[in-house]
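Sequence, structure tokens reproduced for reference:
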Amino acid sequence: MQSFILLLPDGTPFTASMADVEYFRLFCSRLAINYGSQIGASVAVFFVLLILTKREKMLSWIFIINALCLVINIIRSLLQALYTVGHWANMYAVLSVVFGRVTATDKGITIAAGTLTLFLAICIFISLSMQVWIVCVTAGVRQRVIIMGATTTVALVAVGYRFTITAISNMQTMKYEGMAEYDHLVTSSNIAQAVAIWMYCAVFTSKLGYALLQRRRLGMTQFGPMQIIFVMGCQTMVIPGTSILPTISHANRLHTAIFFVLQFESSIPELGSQALTVTCIFLPLSAIWAGVSNTDSGFSDGDSSSHRHMVKGYFGRTPVGSPEK
């Protein structure tokens, strides 16, 4: 494509390409669409969660954490979208790599967005920990301690990586520098985060899957809240945290490798931010779906009391026919 000459602030000429202009224009458009879709999806799920949750159950910890995840994600995505209209995305600044026009507000927005990503990850892991604890309510004490210890350790490693990345990114922002020299650390953080979420969901779905097999042996085959939680747990494990190994090795890339694995694909880097969004959306969606099924079916297939306790604790709802405790 055609090249043209521009001048640096000190008058030094440099050559820019229309290809660079076109690439950055499309990149900003894709960023705006990506962040806008996350804002819209999070807002929609947040209001649906408010409408379908009973008022007296809105003080349950699981509801508060899930709602907080959505609120944080809305604000985070909005701040990230502001990048496309700020001085960081000024065409001349990008081409000349001179960011003298970047204001304190621009830097503050960038730092706030990165910090909120850390808070969002922490809230997601808290929510997953609460759900794993609830689903293991029928397990023995030793088994429960081992499961919670293993998942919590992996989550703390992921949060530690995220905290480090956030601190370094904020310092680099203040110095008008990028994260290129810390790519290895960013990659490790993404891997740790994907493994942590996958591990939580693996424990969650395997425990529920075993319970469903036991119910089937007893002739309880009705599709109800437990099956719904199992389906959504598998979905949360597979969609946001699809196996990252094929992508990292660059061998036979999976067509279905999305969200977390897209963080390792250089041609579509903007979609990597969807991973946490999809996870925090799936968490309350399973509660909404199962809550509606719970109301409709009345648990007519004879769930055990421990399973009713699990559903009540998970959704902040009481199954029909169960006494409120």
